[in-house]
């Protein structure tokens, strides 16, 4: 089991978690709560000067943990795949401007072709972005997604598959994100976390909970403690590897987005101390 | 790839697929369409003399393929687990009365305990039913369920896990059901199908499709050809093992249940020939 959490310096909150707040408001509130990090979703940057926004975050003592998200490489036509690569190069530029050390990849899947084919296109797409990522000092972080998203969001559905790909690419500019929502059910999870870290690929750790029942496949995640994920155990496995990065709260929730966000942030910090 | 399907003698339809029809109507319609098999859900037997219903099905030249469903063994208290075992013994009796050679198990999972614990309770529950199953000549068939059901419906989420358990129990009265909806995404599927058959555990093959998007986690399955499952390839893997059982159409669909069931049955037989 992981050691108890007593403060928020390793807590990072994703802007999408408090989606109703503009990034400026979210940053002020996170900072006032003593939260150490922020992961920025690209939609939160719309209409902003990205470089100034990064400075604003740092002025509030928030570490910019990552930019979400790149990916969606697979497509049925070459021109669509090229457009996807162009968008990922743009995401790398945005991360560099923001001062984010990584871009998290939701890798994609294209209905109409096999998952094997989609995985090859993901690998090709990442390879095509590597030089640009290296120049920008930005890591491309493969996030395996739950198998319920294999149809259209990611052909990489287990940590083993993400590890396979990161090891095949074998670059310091590629890593892996472990998100408990996607991976908690996997009987091989502990081993694959160890393997991920042993190859220096463990780059991010995302937390939330899996509610029973889950009412919406995308936007009904629970806060830590509201569901059935063995989160303390998984955090223990992650920290046993020596990982000392952030615990990133990434909650998509129609329910919480409709609530008062200040109250919600209190629930987040409370759940973080009690149930993470 | 599998050989082309040209008739319906290996087609089995689950009563729940055409849920609005009482079993008597479903049986007449299936039989009139030349369909060879029927899998009976227990709710379809409510208020019927089960033995007479089995005879009615056979009189219509329908082979009774299986009874759905038993399982749901895990629970937080011993008395609940005993009640679950009692219900499974009853399901075995019903299968025997109906003349069904197997009971399909949706194994269960109990929020509040680990998946490992739930799996142990599943194994214990099956073992507790084995003698009764042997006496009734009924096979207990473990169906691994999609990881999106790990929270509350099944702690067995891959074919590897189902194979592990069937091999650990090692009884002629235990088998495994392969359902493409639950397993299509698994990169190890072909190997695990081979392994399943090599241990004489491949007892059932369920088909449908995975739609993108999927609007409901339980009741938005697609007919074959409507989604992204590599069904012909998977059927090929199954048949290469020598499996010559039924292709069972198991579709839970709020959309189709609201349509004219006679038209829907035509769609099923058409999709079966074209897309299976």
Automatic annotation (TrEMBL), chains A, B:
It holds the Pfam family AP_endonuc_2. Residues 31-267 form the Xylose isomerase-like TIM barrel domain. InterPro entries: IolE/XylAMocC-like (IPR050312), Xyl_isomerase-like_sf (IPR036237), Xyl_isomerase-like_TIM-brl (IPR013022). It comes from the Bacteria. The keyword Membrane does not apply. GO terms for molecular function: isomerase activity. Keywords: Isomerase. This is Sugar phosphate isomerase/epimerase. It comes from Adhaeribacter swui.
């Amino acid at each position: 089991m992981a050691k108890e959490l007593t403060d928020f310096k390793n807590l990072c909150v994703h802007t999408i978690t408090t989606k109703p707040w503009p990034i400026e408001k979210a940053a002020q509130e996170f900072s006032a709560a003593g939260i150490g990090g922020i992961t920025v979703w690209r939609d939160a940057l719309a209409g902003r000067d990205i470089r100034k926004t990064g400075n604003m975050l740092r002025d509030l003592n928030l570490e910019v943990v990552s930019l979400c998200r790149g990916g969606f490489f697979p497509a049925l036509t070459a021109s669509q795949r090229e457009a996807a690569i162009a968008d990922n190069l743009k995401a790398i530029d945005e991360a560099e401007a923001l001062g984010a050390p990584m871009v998290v990849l939701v890798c994609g899947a294209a209905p109409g072709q096999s998952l094997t084919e989609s995985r090859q296109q993901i690998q090709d797409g990442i390879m095509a972005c590597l030089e640009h990522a290296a120049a920008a000092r930005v890591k491309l972080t493969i996030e395996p997604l739950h198998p319920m998203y294999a149809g259209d969001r990611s052909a990489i559905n287990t940590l083993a598959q993400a590890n396979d790909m990161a090891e095949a690419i074998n670059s310091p500019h590629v890593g892996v994100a472990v998100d408990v929502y996607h991976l908690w059910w996997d009987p091989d999870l502990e081993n694959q976390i160890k393997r991920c870290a042993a190859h220096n690929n463990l780059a991010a750790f995302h937390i939330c909970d899996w509610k029973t029942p889950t009412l919406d496949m995308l936007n009904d995640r629970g806060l830590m403690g509201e569901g059935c994920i063995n989160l303390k155990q998984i955090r223990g496995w992650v920290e046993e590897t020596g990982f000392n990065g952030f615990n990133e709260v990434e909650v998509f929730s129609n329910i919480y987005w409709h609530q008062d966000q200040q109250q919600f942030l209190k629930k987040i910090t409370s759940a973080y101390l009690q149930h993470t």
